[in-house]
Amino acid sequence: MTVKTRFAPSPTGFLHLGGVRTALFCWLFARRHDGAFLLRIEDTDRERSTQDSIDAILTGMTWVGLTWDEGPYYQTQRYDRYREVAAELQATGHAYHCYCSPQELEDMRAQQVAAGQNPKYDGRCRNRRDIPAGVQPVLRFRTPQAGKIVVDDLVRGRVVIENRELDDLVIVRADGNPTYHFSVVVDDHDMDITHVIRGDDHLKNTPRQINMIKALGWTRPEYAHLPMILGEDGSRLSKRHGAVNVLDYRDQGYLPAAVLNYLVRLGWSHGDQELFSQEEMIELFDLADVNASASRFDSAKLSWLNQQHIMRTPVDELVPLLQEQLAIEGLDPDGGPALEIVIEAYRERATTMQELAQSCWYLFRDFDDFDPTAAKKHLRPVVGEALADLRDRLALLQRWTAAEVHDAIDGAATNAELSFGKLGQPLRVALTGGSVSPPIDTTAALVGRERGLVRLDLALAFIARRQAAAG
Ligand code: GLU
User: Fold this and answer.
1) Cα-Cα-Cα-Cα dihedral of 19, 213, 203, 141, to 10°?
2) 236 and 18 in contact (C-beta within 8 Å)?
3) Mean pLDDT, to the nearest integer, of 18-47?
């Protein structure tokens, strides 16, 4: 048997992190078993499905690198096939037309609730003979009234449902559109899906789907229902908890490898290992190690993992990502230092590529104002003389390298009887406008001689004005 899994999103919104986690588990399971993974767009809900959402799904899946071997299939292109199977179910007595009006269904429901029963369709059209004129019927599946369905879920274990708890679900709507339950059964069969891996919100649907599979005489796939992802407050992960759209993470400069690494750990573990490369995930992933209880989303951990992946990714792969982020910030890399060197200097301290781009802006844009707090604290008249001395030493450097800058700071600081840091910090404010950057000699090397000296002059003028104002 060749393993075949599918990710089957309904295109009614953006691609949610929970969806990506489901897709990842399907993908890993297929890759791990040398099987196939397919993508199916479940767009039968024509009112809620949008092209924007389809595009977001395809873009998101491509961005995280969950490549599919087949598809994307679109359910709206398979209506003939659903009609054919619906006709078969009807011909074999497994489905029947229901003419009940919405009002009738509502009354039925109200009566059942009033009688303290669980509301469900009572099957009144099962043997209906009086066909009302002018009513477009729906098609309902005739669920067996006795017996039970046993599912040995690969994550949840054995789940047993009595058929009498289920009702006759609609499989084709009055307008001829198939419902989700029906199209999913037909597709999983036609597409030879061996393992249905999906969110556990679908667990309750599984027995209904299995009844249809049985009526059609098809083989049922294995099922694995994945635990929910909760937000930090314990409720189901949603927008309230911050970004849940996978493309927001792309836009914020997260690496796809980090997002997948984070998501694989939501519900799955391998000892206490946290960092996984894609190859390791494929090699180690097993549904048997998926935890049945819900897992909690932790954005701090995602940031930590992103930083770890930024540290481990070859610099040349990070360059285009930094370019994108600089463009978003309106910064032009031309005329600044080589991005490879910037990344080397910054990657230890940036949790996202966005943060990296935002921290190093001063390498790509001139300024004539310092951060007021930093300037107030560090550009003080007492260091004016030492900073002027340092400027002269720097101007004379043969080569503007971190090592030579370091020696110059050392010389000027010793001369003024200041510690290295006491002079380094004013220099940092002068060169970067603020008080945070990589080691000061590295920072100065990145800024470069020409820009560096201009900025030092600006800082000396600032100090002079301050001194004059103080009288
Ligand atoms: N289309 C369904 C959804 O987006 C998933 C169906 C399935 O995996 O069976 O929730």
Assistant:
1) 110
2) no
3) 96
Residue 353's alpha-carbon distances to 59, 254, 321, in angstroms, are: 19, 7, 7
Cβ of 42 below 6 Å from ligand 1: yes
69 CB contacts (<8 Å, ≥6 apart)?
30, 36, 37, 38
CATH of 78-226, one of 3.20.20.140, 3.40.50.720, 3.40.50.620, 3.40.640.10: 3.40.50.620
Beta-strand relationship, 36-41 and 70-74: parallel
Q: Is 377 annotated as catalytic?
A: no
Choose the catalytic residue: 148, 204, 214, 239.
Answer: 239
Atom of ligand 1 nearest to the CA of 22: 8
Q: Which residues pair with 162 in a beta bridge?
A: 148
Contact 191, 218 (CB under 8 A): no
pLDDT per residue as tens digits for the range 313-349? 999 999 999 999 999 999 999 989 999 999 999 999 9
Q: CA 89, 162, 44 angle in degrees (round to 5)?
A: 45
Query: Top-level CATH class of 372-469?
Result: mainly alpha
